[in-house]
Amino acid sequence: MVRGINTSGWRAVVELGSGTGALSGVLSEALPPGCRFLAVERSAALVAEFRARWPDLEVVEGDAAEVGAICRMRGMPSVDAIFSALPLRLLPEGVQDRVLGGASHLLAPGGLFAQVTYWPRALAAGREMRERVSARIGPIESDRLVAGNTPPAWVFRCVRPRD
Ligand SMILES: C[S@@+](CC[C@H](N)C(=O)[O-])C[C@H]1O[C@@H](n2cnc3c(N)ncnc32)[C@H](O)[C@@H]1O
């Protein structure tokens, strides 16, 4: 999700749907010194596992649909990147809209939104989801299969246009 990205100027990053932190360790290692990393996860049980596994990383139990308020309350009015492993396609449309609307307001101009999905690109539903994310955030700058993942995953990244 971070391959090929220059993270050197980043100061704040959020991960949505962090679960037990399968991605969080790798993501946080890719960040420059001093960059704030905040994980948001809805399940209290997974947050507890996350904290046991990654005691040095910041995680909050909360709904990604409230990501703007969650970050503001923690002194993060805007972020340079949002990484999401949320099952976006499976969430009700209203929740998707709130997640993407919140993400789009929170992202700094030029900020990156990266989503991992396990649905094959050819499926119409997967394409629709990418289009919906891109319409809310900005143009897709990369979209690729990570065949070595089990199961194979698609990672796509959108960039919020600079004003
Ligand atoms: C596919 S799992 C990914 C977990 C982990 N990031 C990984 O890569 O293994 C999706 C995660 O999103 C969380 N989730 C689903 N809806 C959410 C929401 N509205 N707000 C925050 N987390 C949510 C689930 O509890 C689950 O942990």
Would you mind describing this structure in some detail?
- The protein is an alpha/beta fold and 163 residues long.
- It has one domain (12-159): Rossmann fold, CATH 3.40.50.
- The protein is built from 5 helices and 7 strands, in the order βαβαβαβαβαββ.
- The chain has helices spanning 24-29, 44-53, 67-73, 93-106, 124-137, and strands at 12-16, 36-41, 58-61, 79-84, 107-117, 140-146, 153-159.
- It has a 7-stranded mixed sheet with strand order 3-2-1-4-5-7-6.
- β2, α2 and β3 (58-61) form a beta-alpha-beta unit.
- The model has no long low-confidence stretch (mean pLDDT 93).
- S-adenosylmethionine (SAM) binds at residues 16-19, 22-23, 40-43, 46, 63-65, 85-87.
Outline the secondary-structure elements.
Blueprint: E1 12-16, H1 24-29, E2 36-41, H2 44-53, E3 58-61, H3 67-73, E4 79-84, H4 93-106, E5 107-117, H5 124-137, E6 140-146, E7 153-159
Parallel strand pairs: 1-2, 1-4, 2-3, 4-5
Antiparallel strand pairs: 5-7, 6-7
The structure holds S-adenosylmethionine.
Residues 16-19, 22-23, 40-43, 46, 63-65, 85-87 line the site of S-adenosylmethionine.
